[in-house]
Amino acid sequence: MDPQLEQKLASQDQKLDKIYASIEKMRKYFFWTMIVTIGMIVLPIIALIAVIPWFLSVMGSAYNIQ
Fold first, then answer.
1. Which end of the chain has a smaller Cβ tally under 10 Å, C or N?
2. Are 51 and 57 in contact (CB under 8 A)?
3. Which of 66, 46, 47 is nearest to 56 (CA)?
4. How far is it, in rounded angstroms, from Cα 24 to Cα 29?
């Protein structure tokens, strides 16, 4: 094969490897961003489901509402 062509192919392989490594870092970053975002939305909702009945009970007993 032509040496110049081999050199270009080797150069492209190196660039593809760098692109792949960069994409993998981005994928991991997006994954953890998604996990944190879901945690910041779902955990407060679960907490509200547990706290609202207790809060209503406390407020109801404070105002003698049955």
1. C
2. no
3. 66
4. 9
